[in-house]
Amino acid sequence: MKTDTIDDSFGTVIGPRAVRLERILPGPIERVWAYLTEPDKRAKWMAEGSMADYVGGPIDLSFDNSKLRGETTPERFKKYECHPLRGVITHYEPPHKLGYTWGQDESASEVLMELKSAAPGSRPGSVLLIVTHQKLSGREGMINVSSGWHTHLGVLAEELGAGERRPFWDRFLAVEQEYEKRIPGLS
Predict the structure, then answer these.
(1) 138, 140, 175, 178 - which has most CB atoms within 10 Å?
(2) Burial classification of residue 185, based on how many CB atoms lie within 10 Å of its CB (0-12 exposed, 13-18 middle, 19 or more buried)
(3) Which pLDDT value is given to residue 8?
(4) Pick the residue with more confidence: 122 or 54?
(5) Are 130 and 9 in contact (CB under 8 A)?
(6) C-alpha distances in angstroms, 110 versus 51, 76, 90, 91, 120?
(7) What is the pLDDT of residues 79-104, one digit of tens each?
(8) Contact 59, 51 (CB under 8 A)
(9) What residues contact residue 106 under an 8 Å CB cut-off, 6+ apart?
(10) What is the pTM for the complete model shown?
(11) Rounded distance, CA 153 to CA 6, Å?
(12) HEC states along 14-77?
């Protein structure tokens, strides 16, 4: 069965400590934007919590990936259950651009999500979501973040109706092994 997702497309390293992932999702664009910004919808694929709808405002999320599919968290990730993320909104341009810091101190990384009409050849009304995460802590951080975004974006695609629901942790662990091979050592 062909879907509009490119879930098996892996993210790419686009610079020192920066990765980019792309997904084609069922639209319309306003619907995808709602899943990025509305707490009840975002909780279904990524994290619970609130975010301001203006640049400079706070973002306060809580990640508990075991809730996404009702799974038991693998032992090595249990310390991250209910993991908080506090940051600041850096871009807010509905329904096309959302950005925020991943943390609040000088070591914070930065996320930028961009929504565009999907390329010709995609199903009409499809949306291209581009996620860029930069200023990551190093190779281990790049692997972890790439695996996390890859998995969360797969859950988002499923929530939007593109594909069957799959276990979160099985998918994460599988793509983590692949990112381990794909992301080079850093100098």
Answers:
(1) 175
(2) exposed
(3) 62
(4) 54
(5) no
(6) 15, 25, 9, 11, 30
(7) 888 889 999 999 999 999 999 999 98
(8) yes
(9) none
(10) 0.92
(11) 10
(12) EECCEEEEEEEECCCHHHHHHHHHCHHHHCCCCCEEEECCCCCCEEEEEECCHHHHCCCCCHHH
Q: How confident is the model at residue 1 (pLDDT cuts 50, 70, 90)?
A: very low
Q: Three-class SS of residue 11? A: coil
What top-level class would CATH report for the domain 12-182?
A: alpha beta
Cα–Cα distance for residue pair 59/34, rounded to 1 Å: 15
Distance CA 73, CA 168 (A): 9
pLDDT at 4: 37
How crowded is residue 142: how many other Cβ atoms within 10 Å of its Cβ? 25
* Integer Cα distance of 69 and 161 in angstroms: 15
Distance between CA atoms of residues 54 and 44, nearest Å: 23
Tell me which residue has tokens 């992932």: 21
- Give the separation between CA 86 and CA 103, rounded to whole angstroms: 5
Residue 48 near residue 38, CB atoms below 8 Å: no
Residue 186 has pLDDT above 70, yes or no: no
In percent, the amount of the chain with pLDDT more than 70 equals 94
User: b/e map of 72-86 (b: 16 or more CB within 10 Å)?
Assistant: ebeeeeeeeeeeebb
